[in-house]
Amino acid sequence: MNQAITLVKADSEAVLNGRIGRLDGLRGEHLYISGGTGILGAWLLELIKVLNESYSFGMKVTAYSRRARDFAARWPHLGGIEGFRFEDGDIRYFAEFPSGVRYIIHAAALTDRRLLASQPSSVAEVNGVGTLRILRAAHLLDDVRKFVLLSSGLVYGAQPWDMPHMNESFIGSLRCNDVNAVYAESKRFAEVVAQGVISETKLPVVTLRPFAFVGPYQSLQLPWAVTDFIRDSFTGGPIRIMGDGATVRSLMYASDFAFGVLAALAEGSSGEVYNIGSPKPVDLLTLAKMITGSFTPAPEIRTGLGQSGHDHTRLVPDIQKAQKDFGLEVSVSVENAIQKTITWNRYMRSS
Amino acid sequence: MNNLPHLTVCDATLRDGSHAYSHQITFEQIKAYATASEQAGYTYLEVGHGNGLGASSLQVGESLVSDSEMLQAAKQCLQNTKLSVHVIPGFATIKKEIVNALDARVDLFRVGCHCTEADITQRHISHIRAAGREVWGVLMMSHMASAEVLLGEAKKMQSYGAQGIVLMDSAGTYLPKNVTEKVGRLASGLEVPVGFHAHQNLGLAIANSLAAIDAGARIIDGTSKGFGAGAGNAPLEMLAAVLKQMAYQTTIDLFKSLDAAEVAAQLFAGALPESNGITIVSGLAGVFSGFSKPVQRVAKQMGVDPRDVFLELGKRKVVGGQEDLIIEVAAEIAARKGVVK
């Protein structure tokens, strides 16, 4: 496990190198992270650890999630840090922040596709009602400087195939009478609630719309293409692609994602909405080859296994606005991101 | 080569046939038939208790041979044909049956549930996918739900990681138009391939299988000589002949398929399904084909007409796992008719 921790630490140092100035406003602050133990939460803690140890930021963090204490025990290099607190709780019943909190990242959400299918009303409750609860609690604090809401790139609905990148002004369509839209609709609801709270209370909320990510701390049990491909490669394959592999996504490495969220916290403009993700497209077949190429022997890739006639889909953000306002950038290529993720999982498997 | 799709043909003889044999299939029968199935070139051979892994019990019938022994016997006879199992959460647990089957190098797990209860398959499907094995979802008794409901449940299974979805006409009650509607809805709404598992109660197993293929199914189930529950399934040897005649691409060797049917006829002589008044009424009533033998047994004990029992079970919309209701229903009919036993 030490090698895995070392890899993440090196990546955290790398992403912060030369960019500390953007985060200066966070020095000495107490940051509250809901959903603080997922992939994003873990990386935020890793970056803040480096900020505190190498740059004397003196930040305190409270990480809140359903199993925050389990996380702290699982990862003692984070769980044992003085100034990092781990609170168990359910966002649907969130009531109160600790005093002194002035910066908040709300990342708690149900995102697992399996839950979206089985418990859609719970998804609506956690993602929608949970957001309302934490926004109202934030309003009760004395001096909130910034509240970052993690929404989703899925709020746009389907990206037109001939549109290379979606920017924040694109308005797609969702079928609100389709249960499969519950996740995207819950995030749309969260966004509009945030705008309502801004209107009513002037709470400084910045909304981020994340796209796809990959990296250490990401569970390979999640049924997403990249996690599926990596997991199936570890078990010897084959990788099964239902279509022809032309569906397009983009992947941002977790360290860039976490830096972007911290930078938005420090420098994002209240009331604004920003895409966050990689603008570099990658089709599923290329991604699968990228992954299998890291295994010996390379697992077989099978395509065309599904029902024919399905349209290819595309989901790639335009991130110029975030680049301009708070310096979001892709410092780790998708190839390196995949390689690092596989290496981290190898370390974890051998420990 | 033509433009017709390649079909995956699944041989369920050693699983669905278990119902027809009161789950008493022997180790030697498994080896003999598995060898024939391999030679016939079926894509998958499904093996096990009729209700799947872990189902051997007093309630639904005890297997003569354990799950592990069945899988071991079949696996040693298979090279190109892959080994598959039927899994119903509740009968099969992850810690015991699934783990054992993974160890037994089962290639494909078909995780089934009543057609409106896909939620119960999440943990099993997710676990098997995490282990890197192929897993499909199976919606049983699919005549009991509308096409829209079936699509919703199938999408759940797809989201859990299922790489194929099979609709089962467990009661043998479908007409071709029903198959066209339901399979067609799934084929147009799912990313993963769709399959169909027919029963022969109304004599439509082959016709319904063809309707399914026309509607977009890419996976077709059958059994040699139709050896399966109730009136049996789509006879694989006939399916092989028809598919060849229609120039569909499969991995089947027709003559070897015909030979496999003869092997099944010899191995399971006396227990091969046949159409009769009881199986026809069972199909009309929409009752799970696996109820056939216990209904006939109980009806005989109670001195009532098994067709009445089937009709009453159909009214109550019973599903697999509710076998204990057979006695209750038969007793009520006996009481109504003044039958004293």
Please describe what this structure looks like.
- The complex is a heterodimer of chains A (351) and B (341).
- Chain A has 351 residues and is α/β, with parallel strands linked by helices.
- Chain A has a single domain (2-213, 252-279, 316-332), classed as Rossmann fold.
- Chain A is 42% helix and 14% strand.
- Chain A has twelve helices and 13 strands.
- Chain A has helices at 2-16, 39-55, 68-74, 76-79, 113-118, 120-139, 182-201, 225-234, 254-267, 284-292, 320-326, 334-350; strands spanning 30-34, 60-65, 84-88, 101-106, 146-150, 205-210, 213-214, 239-240, 248-249, 252-253, 273-276, 282-283, 301-302.
- In chain A, the strands form four sheets. A seven-stranded parallel beta sheet of chain A has the order 3-2-1-4-5-6-11, sandwiched between helices. In chain A, strands 7-10 form a two-stranded parallel ribbon. Chain A has a two-stranded parallel sheet with strand order 8-13.
- In chain A, strand 5 (146-150), helix 7 and strand 6 form a beta-alpha-beta unit.
- In chain A, helix 1 (2-16) packs across helix 2 (39-55), helix 2 (39-55) crosses helix 9 (254-267) and helix 8 (225-234) runs parallel beside helix 10 (284-292).
- Chain A is globular.
- The termini of chain A are close together.
- Chain B folds into two domains: 8-267, Aldolase class I (TIM Barrel, Alpha-Beta Barrel), CATH 3.20.20.70; 277-336, Orthogonal Bundle (Helicase, Ruva Protein, domain 3).
- The longest helix of chain B is centred in the first third of the chain and has 14 residues, at 27-40.
- Chain B has 341 residues and is α/β, with parallel strands linked by helices.
- The relative contact order of chain B is 0.14.
- Chain B has an eight-stranded parallel barrel, surrounded by seven helices.
- Chain B has 14 helices and eight strands.
- In chain B, 45% of the residues lie in helices and 12% in strands.
- The termini of chain B are far apart.
- Chain B is globular and about 60 Å long.
- At the A-B interface, helix 5 and helix 8 of A face helix 5 and helix 6 of B.
